[in-house]
Amino acid sequence: MINKKCLLTLVFVFTNMAFVVANVLEAAVETVDSSGDVGQYTSIALDSSGKAHISYYDVNNSDLKYATNSSGSWVATALDSSGSGGQYTSIVVNNSSGKPHISYYEANNGDLKYTTHVSGSWETTTVDSSWNTGLYTSIALDSSNKSHISYYDISNGVLRYAKNTTGSWITATVDSSGNVGQYSSIAVDSSDKLHISYYDVTNGDLKYATLVSGFWVTTTVDNTGDVGQYTSIAVDSLGKLHISYYDTTNSDLKYATNTSGSWVTTIVDSTGNVGQYTSIELDSSGKVHISYYDVTNADLKYATNTYGYWATTAVDTSGNAGQYTSIELDSSGKAQICYYDVTNGDLKYAANVAQPTPTPTPTATSTATSTPTSTVTSTATLTPTPTSTSTATPTVTPTPTATSTPTATSTPTATATITPTPTPTPTATSTVTPTPIPIPCEEATNIVADPSELTLETKASDTIIVTVTGEDGCPVEGDSVKAKVKGSGNEYIKVSPKKQATDANGEAVFTIKAKNKAGNAIVTFKDGSLSTQVKVTVVK
Question: Beta partners for 235?
């Protein structure tokens, strides 16, 4: 385990607002697991003692792994080694017992799976094995410590939901209006009401669903451009919703809330390409804390509106770090963040992340003006919290017929940009039985990799996008693409994951990481009888 301190200095001066902030943000960053390429698809939960519980994926062994510091030091355990299990993990901890519950995707069989330690030993269950399902899972517990899971069914392009409130797993379709359900996030309020945020692939929108009197009510929260990937949802003590998400069109981190009674969307960070892999939590005062990835600088970032403005700060700037973030707050309101270190292929943890308390200091001003002028010197960016409203029209969808499965035993600089959401056109009630959404192409006829040649320095990494298409270039979704390094190439590089399903664009993304040795390697990507190769040159 590696420990180090990251000191981040925040200096902010408002000449006309007579306001000065000068404080230091300190976070302790440590490596939790460095045994191979580990730490993708991370999720974190804290127990009542503030101890961390993290679920994540082991690329090298295609395993679901779990790490905790409940004993005082980090202990990592492989939970599912049955075959490519552990992608899209989500974890929650029982507040009374401190026992974890984990949902995840098992790629070999295309199943949604669940494992828990409630009984004192790990018990694993297949929750949904219909079609290829269980991607983008999110899990939450109700007041009775029963599990609720939202997830994406890639075979039919729908948002699905599972619960075990009756002792058996019940699964249902939440939204089937187009290709919907990726990047799902679920929360349960104090009244055990369900709330799900997710991405509408067909329209490029952020959507929200809630179960009201037996009916799933779905709402388009933001439809300004292509928005809604990497969603994360939290509910406050009043039952109001808070959602963080990525604006693909503008490469911004955005935030939506209905605390005013209607949905209001805000740009939180627009400095470069930021906002992927968001995770959101609320403190006891209802203030927002968001962890996310800065693509431009390859950093882990943190944003909060604790003091009435958005402050954004880089937490880990060492190499390429900050993908697959997950955030939780301890009892003192400090953020604990787990994430993936791409450079080293490690699972990392940033502890005690907090925005420093601002210190107001009177300063002389010579000219009064209605618009404040500000001078900023910081790694942080501050944005006043806006007050505007927008509305969205919900779509009511009857709850579909459920399927039962037995339970197994065993960043002030300028006024923030507010984007009122246009009122969507109401749509007709959908049928009770969901109609499968057709895949754009059913049969793959071509496979290409971009780039086809790659040069890496030792210990560096880069991504390869493999695209599978059918006739006329239509994308093939849901195909399994396998990656294999030929012969002695394994001495110079490693590729992860070993297998990946294509998304709605027919794309599967792989990471090539160079080892500490110069040489040439060939990576072959196969989809059935189709194959393509990438030549990789490792230099020192």
Answer: 241
| Count of other CB atoms within 10 angstroms of residue 46 | 18
Other CB atoms closer than 10 Å to residue 248's CB: what's the count?
A: 18
Distance between CA 119 and CA 45 in Å, rounded? 19
**The residue to which tokens 């004192």 are assigned:** 120
Per-residue tokens: 11: 């200096």
Q: Which of 421, 533, 512 is closest to 461 using CA atoms?
A: 512
Q: What is the dihedral of CA 172, 173, 174, 176, to 10 degrees?
A: -170
Residue 193 pLDDT greater than 60, yes or no:
yes
Q: How far apart are the first and last CA of the chain?
A: 27
Q: Look at 8-17, 41-50, 95-104, 503-512 and tell me which has the smallest mean pLDDT.
A: 8-17
Q: Structure tokens of 435?
A: 């109609």
pLDDT in tens, 28-55: 999 999 999 999 999 999 999 999 999 9
436-463: per-residue pLDDT in tens?
Answer: 333 457 789 999 999 888 888 888 888 8
Is the sign of the CA dihedral 15, 17, 19, 20 positive or negative? negative
What sign does the dihedral 364-365-370-371 (CA atoms) show?
A: negative
- Judge contact between 250 and 229, C-beta under 8 A: no
Q: For residue 23, what is the DSSP state?
A: E
